[in-house]
Amino acid sequence: MAVTIAHRCIHARDIHETLAFYTGLLGLTTRENSQFPDKGIMFSRDNIDSPDPVIADYINALVTEKLPTLYAMPAVKQFDIAGIFMAVPGTESTGPWIDTFLWNYPPYANHEAYEEVNHVGFARLEFLVDDFEGTRERLREAGARFISEEIVIPAGVLPDGPVGPTRAMSLRDPNNIVIVLIEA
């Protein structure tokens, strides 16, 4: 049996700020959406009026009926949500993706991410970066909130990481989610 991780999801306070952080500073790309290529947004209240009525009906049902059931949320008759898929360059059509959603209505139950990562649920995102120094400097210049200094991880500690010793450091994204950068 083959299993692959397809998506990770971030609920954003500001989808444009989040998109700028992940695409502009970390180099992720957005997955083109053939239904709404001009907006780059997967779906939102603004584009529910797709030229294709089948798509418009599906998106409406998706958000008002299917997603609440799938994700254990209360059912809603109205919504105000926007979403977009981001991926590592070259994997836009295959994933894995980071889904980024902005829920205006129904409102978030809590507007803050966990302060510490020792909570049940989503804890952090880790990225292998081939230009550790350049990525760190780009983030520093943009005012990123680093929460650790650089550390050296000995060889063999990361089961899916580089073979030799590598560097890592962590910061917070615009939504207060912990991001770990690991030198590839």
TrEMBL record:
Query: Which InterPro entries has this protein been placed in?
Result: Glyas_Bleomycin-R_OHBP_Dase (IPR029068), Glyas_Fos-R_dOase_dom (IPR004360)
* Alphabetized SUPFAM superfamilies for the sequence: Glyoxalase/Bleomycin resistance protein/Dihydroxybiphenyl dioxygenase
Domain Glyoxalase/fosfomycin resistance/dioxygenase: start-end pairs: 5-149
Instruction: State the name under which the record lists this protein.
Output: Glyoxalase/fosfomycin resistance/dioxygenase domain-containing protein
Tell me what organism the protein belongs to: Micromonospora radicis
